[in-house]
Predict the 3D structure of the following.
Amino acid sequence: MELADFLLTLLSSAGVSAALAGVLVFLSRNWLSERLRHSIKHEYDLKLTHINNELKAESEKNAILLKTSIEREAEKVRLANASIGQTQKLSIERKLSAIETLWDGVLAARKNIPVVMGFIDILTEDEYSSMKNHRDFQAMVGELSTGKITQMYEDNVGSRERVRPYVGEYTWALVSTYQAIILRTALLIQMGQKDSEKLNWHLDPGIRQLLNSALSEAEVAEFDQTRIGKVNWIQRKFEFKILAAMQVVISGEQFGDEALRQAMKMEEKVQQLANA
C-alpha cells in the first residue's frame, strides 16, 4: 500500500471513530439526562404524595375539629333556646294571668256600680244640683254605704298589687285612675245629700285632676261637651284605654317614654287624693 492510501485509510478510520465517539457521547448524555429526569420526577412524586397525604390528614383532622366545635356550639344554642323559651313561656303565662285578674276587677266595678250612678246618667249636668229633690234619689243614696262603695273594687283574689309587675305601669295607672274617679264620684254623690254643690261631681277639683292626668285635652273637652251620660262616657273611655294598654302588654311591646311619664303623673294624682 502506498503512503497516500495508508494516510487516507487512517484518516477515514479516525473520522469514523470520532463520529462514533460523538454519537456515543450524545447518547450517553441523553441517557444520563433522561435517567436523572426520571429520578428527579420519581423523588418529586414521592414528596408530592407525602405532602398530599399530610394535607389530607390535616384537612380531615381540621374537619373533625370543626364539626365537633359546631356540634358543641349548636348544643349550647339549643340549651340556651330551650331555657329562653321556657322563661318566655312562663313570663307570657304570668302576664296573661295578671291581665285577666286586672280585667276581672274592672268588670266587677262595672257590675257593682251603685244604682244612683246610673240614675245621674239619665240627667243633664244642669239637673245635678236639683236631683236630691227627686223622690227616688234619697232611697238610692241611702243604699250608697261605704261598704257598697268599696264593693265595687273588692279584691276576691288576694291583693291585686301582686299583678302590677306584669301589666306595666301605664296599664296599672289607668286602672288606678279609673277606680279613683268612680269611687270619688260615688262619695261626692253620697255627700250631696247635705251639700248640693257636691252633686256637681264633674266640676270637683279632684275629679278634674284625675281626668287631666289620664286624658288628652281633646278628650277632656269631649267629656265637658257631653251633656248627658257622663259616667257612662268615663266608663267607656277608660275601659277602651285599659284594653288597648293590655293589648300592648300581651303583644310583648314596650310602652314609650311618654306613656311612662303619663303613668307617673296619674299615680301622683291618685296618691294626692288618697292622702288628702
